[in-house]
Design brief:
It is a single chain. The protein has about 110 residues and is mainly alpha-helical. Helices cover about 85% and strands about 0% of the residues. The chain is elongated and about 45 Å long. The two termini are about 20 Å apart.
Length: about 110
């Protein structure tokens, strides 16, 4: 579905870069009472999550992203605090997988 290993590595690299940038940025936006900006980043994560994540994490992302469309940052913050460790774990697992691909010499 994702193509060859090189294509997968490219998608994983994009996901990793996005998570490294967006996990702390979402928390920062929420701390600044900007749920709309947090929503935009959560929406992007929601877009690629079904490709790489468990159904449980996808559901959690979907709930927080949907709430962030209409709720205040104060309402979204506790749910994001529960979601963030799962996103961090995903980021870390992608990084480990990419390191393995790089070491095997089969990635760009």
């Amino acid at each position: 579905m994702l193509g060859d290993e090189e294509s997968l590595a490219e998608l994983l690299e994009l996901a990793l870069q996005g998570l490294e940038r967006d996990i702390p940025a979402i928390a920062q936006h929420l701390a600044q009472d900007d749920a709309k900006a947090a929503n935009q980043l959560l929406h992007a994560i929601k877009g690629f999550a079904p490709i790489f994540c468990s159904a449980e994490l996808v559901q959690q992302i979907t709930v927080v992203e949907a709430l962030s469309k209409t709720a205040s940052a104060a309402e979204v913050t506790p749910l994001y605090a529960q979601l963030a460790p799962g996103l961090s774990q995903l980021r870390d697992e992608i990084g480990v997988h990419l390191d393995g691909i790089r070491k095997s010499g089969s990635a760009p």
